[in-house]
Amino acid sequence: MFDSITGSIKNAVNKIRHKDDVASLKKAITELKKSLLKADVHHKTTKDLITAIELETKRLGIGQDSFLKALRNELSNVLTTQGNQGFVFSSTPPTTILMTGLQGSGKTTTTGKLANYLKLRKKKVLVAAADLQRLAAVEQLKQIAAQVEVDIYYDDNEKDPIKIALAAKEKATKELYDVLLIDTAGRLAIDEELMLQLENVRNAVSPDEIFYVADSLTGHDATKTATTFKEKIGIDGVILSKYDGDTKGGVAISIAHQVGVPLRFIGIGEKMPDLEVFIPDRIVSRLMGAGDIEGLAEKTSAVIDEKKAKAVTKKIKKGEFNFNDFLDQLSMMSKLGSMKSIIGMIPGLSGMSSQLKDMDLENSDEIKNIKALIGSMTPKERETPSLMNTSRKKRIAKGCGLSEVQINKILKQFKNASKMAKKLSSKGGMKGMQNMLN
Ligand code: GDP
User: In what residue span(s) does the SRP54-type proteins GTP-binding domain sit (predicted)?
Assistant: First the structure.
């Protein structure tokens, strides 16, 4: 997801050769500035960021360690906008949310993803089809609602979105729904008519919050339109869609800094589970190429079994992650949404995500090989990865039809992943990250 920015950070860090070397810090800062601008970070944001990072690195004492620490802190500062994270429930249900955004931004899809997210958390959700602008929007929302198994309010004979929103709110209140998500009209570009309609819907239903869905792929435009929506109708949160396709990753940094509205969620794929709460520190970890164990565990626990996911995280932390867990994780992954987003969260594998553009989890050779390899192990070997030795590998190679080179490669990947994960989750997280970057 953030391949280019992650790679540039590594280059910048490597410019610092010696402790207290001011000239090399300058080089690192210049490199970082270039890469932030290239990653679509707004020039003002870039300037503020690098000034703060330079000062902080000097304050801590110039070195690779302090540069990384300063970078991490300042990125986190920029991404942490005053306000809420994730979803906030009103004390008087139904929590009513207006979903707004330009046409094609992913608003209707995101409405479905949010409904799915809430449903998985045992909430009673009603979605309302008040986007009467785009011809297929109502039909699309019907399909999505059926797919994620939530109720939908629509009225094919009604042309007034305000009436639809009001009727949906009445239904949601009467029938004790926890959450009402109202999909509103979009336009190809901002226009007065759209803003007026949104204002009217807002005034009619008094939503608890207004979410603005911004398309990451529109780069600087995403920041501009979010600002206009904020000024005209007032937005409480931004959901960044299509973050999976944004190899630059800088738009999140710009929106947080320039718009001044918290990023609440990010969309990371076309499927319904491909939505994540935006947590600044986690995004920073991923920007820096260090994976996101907590995010992975959280996603896992929502889709599958919370207890099991926690146990696996614990095992990773203790360095007891074994081949059975590995296999378990692989089979769970298909339920978790897009492969690329998952890989980006696994420490040690985040760099692989660019090679996985078209990876089909069920049919990829790599995954098949891993499954075949583990399938040829004895139960004891699966439980205890340290048992692997040359003679066992030879036997397994015969069993699964892979070469010893292939086996060694997979075993090394497994070992690296569990080592990185352990390092990162221990207290010396910074050190672990630096080692990884090096
Ligand atoms: P709307 O006009 O704003 O309601 O847009 P849609 O919800 O119809 O989405 C437009 C397109 O973007 C659809 O093809 C979606 O599948 C796609 N899309 C939405 N969110 C994401 C995302 O997070 N990642 C990717 N890759 N595609 C997305």
Answer: 262-275
Tokens of 204: 């009619």
| Residues 184-237 pLDDT 10s | 998 777 788 888 999 999 999 999 999 999 999 888 888 999 999 999 999 999
| Superfamily in which the 293-437 domain is placed by CATH | Signal recognition particle, SRP54 subunit, M-domain (1.10.260.30)
Q: Which CATH number fits domain 3-79: 1.10.390.10, 3.40.50.300, 1.20.120.140, 3.40.630.30?
A: 1.20.120.140
User: For 175-216, where are the alpha helices, taking DSSP H only?
Assistant: 192-205
Report residues whose beta carbon is within 6 angstroms of any ligand 1 atom: 101, 103-109, 134, 137, 186, 241-242, 244-245, 267-270, 274
Q: What pTM was computed for the model?
A: 0.70
Read off the pLDDT band of 359 (50, 70, 90): low
Partnered with residue 180 across adjacent β-strands are 96, 126
Please state the ipTM of this predicted complex: 0.99
The rounded Å distance from CA 342 to ligand 1 centre is: 19
Contact 46, 33 (CB under 8 A): yes
Report how far apart, in Å, the C-alpha atoms of 222 and of each of 97, 189, 248, 252, 354 are: 21, 11, 14, 10, 24
Residue 257: strand, helix, or coil: helix
Tokens 């792929």, residue located: 217
Chain centroid offset of residue 426 CA? 23
Ligand 1: residue of 109, 194, 212 to mutate (most ligand atoms within 8 A of CB) is 109
**Please, which residues have CB within 8 angstroms of residue 342's CB and are 6 or more apart in sequence?**
296, 299, 333, 336
Angle between helices 43-60 and 64-79 (to 10 degrees): 140
Domain boundaries, the chain: 3-79, 95-282, 293-437
Give whole-number Cα distances, 381 to 15, 69, 320, 389, in Å. Answer: 43, 39, 13, 10
Higher pLDDT, 213 or 290: 213
Task: Give residue for tokens 């819907």.
Answer: 201
Strands (DSSP E) found in 269-375: 275-277
List pLDDT tens digits, range 133-172: 887 899 999 999 999 999 999 999 999 999 999 999 999 9
